Amino acid sequence: MSATQGKDGYFLAGDDEPERLRIQAQVWEPDAEAMLERIGVMPGWSCADIGCGGVGVLGPLSHYVGTSGRVLGLDADRALLDTAAAYTRAEGLHNVELQQGDVREPNLPRCSFDLVHARFLLPHVESPAAVLDNMISLAKPGGTVASQENDHSSWSFYPHCPEWTELLDLLERTFALRGDINIGRRTFHMLKEAGLQDVRIRASVHALQNGHPYMRMPVIGARAMRERMIAAGLVTDREFDTLVQAVEQAIQNPDQVQITFTLVQAWGIRPAA
Ligand SMILES: C[S@@+](CC[C@H](N)C(=O)[O-])C[C@H]1O[C@@H](n2cnc3c(N)ncnc32)[C@H](O)[C@@H]1O
């Protein structure tokens, strides 16, 4: 069992998670690049992707910093780091190193990165403000700290499917057992409150059609958390199956479209000491 699995571990851990993260990284890659462009990541920079999972933004970071730079991917989950190792090997990302560690007690040198980044991490920790402080402590004075997180306001399905709304509600209530899946609404202000300067924000949504595999993301996430949902009394076995089956069926409709959740990107500068 990996570090983040089990009762107190990463809620989405499981066999389908590497593939879910791969598709997710592909969908949001242009936005990751747009943010790195806005930040002004330069060749030679030293960057950390905290909670990188199996892909994260290791590829875009690796390309931006080039052969003179370096990228460190940190994650608590051994199995996802193995996926990341296979990915960086296959893509020839020679400037990427991977390390197992917990962002709540990071085993990384302080004040050492030009950019410290985390995507889809803060809802999975009980104290996101403390994690943000840890990320800031890893950045050099004058370095950048960046976050990319969800805001579900835009997430919708057309033609309307009532079970879709119910499934999203169930997902939100399950994530609430640990954190706030909609934390993207707050990250701009969290970064300011944590003392970062010149805080910027960018947001993006995607439209999915033709049975795009990312349309199934909420179903894959729900399946990974099924036991946890049932144990917490949020849904019964039977209700879960009915809900998921109805959403799976709706996705089969070739005319079904989905507007994704909003990805909120926020970043700021660690003040010079
Ligand atoms: C939803 S995934 C996102 C992965 C990646 N950032 C991406 O954008 O594809 C969340 C990741 O955070 C990692 N994680 C959760 N809690 C963590 C912790 N306390 N320390 C380090 N990594 C953690 C999980 O193992 C998982 O890989």
Give the topology.
Layout lengths: L16 H23 L6 E5 L7 H8 L4 E6 L2 H14 L4 E5 L12 E7 L8 H11 E13 L4 E3 L3 H14 L11 H7 L3 E8 L2 E2 L8 H8 L1 H6 L5 H16 L4 E3 L2 E8 L4
Parallel strand pairs: 1-2, 1-4, 2-3, 4-5
Antiparallel strand pairs: 5-10, 6-9, 7-10, 8-9
Helix pairs in contact: 5-7, 5-9
This protein binds S-adenosylmethionine.
Commentary on this structure:
By secondary structure, this protein is of the alpha/beta class. The protein has one domain (17-269): 3-Layer(aba) Sandwich (Rossmann fold), CATH 3.40.50. The chain contains 9 helices and 10 strands. Strands 3-2-1-4-5-10-7 form a 7-stranded mixed sheet, with helices on both faces. Strands 6-9-8 form a 3-stranded antiparallel sheet, with no helix packed on it. Strand 4, helix 4 and strand 5 form a beta-alpha-beta unit. Helix 5 (162-175) packs across helix 7 and helix 5 (162-175) crosses helix 9 (237-252). The longest helix has 23 residues, at 17-39. The chain is globular and about 55 Å long. Bound molecules: S-adenosylmethionine (SAM). S-adenosylmethionine (SAM) binds at residues 4, 10, 12, 21, 24-25, 51-53, 55-56, 75-77, 80, 102-104, 119-121, 124-125.
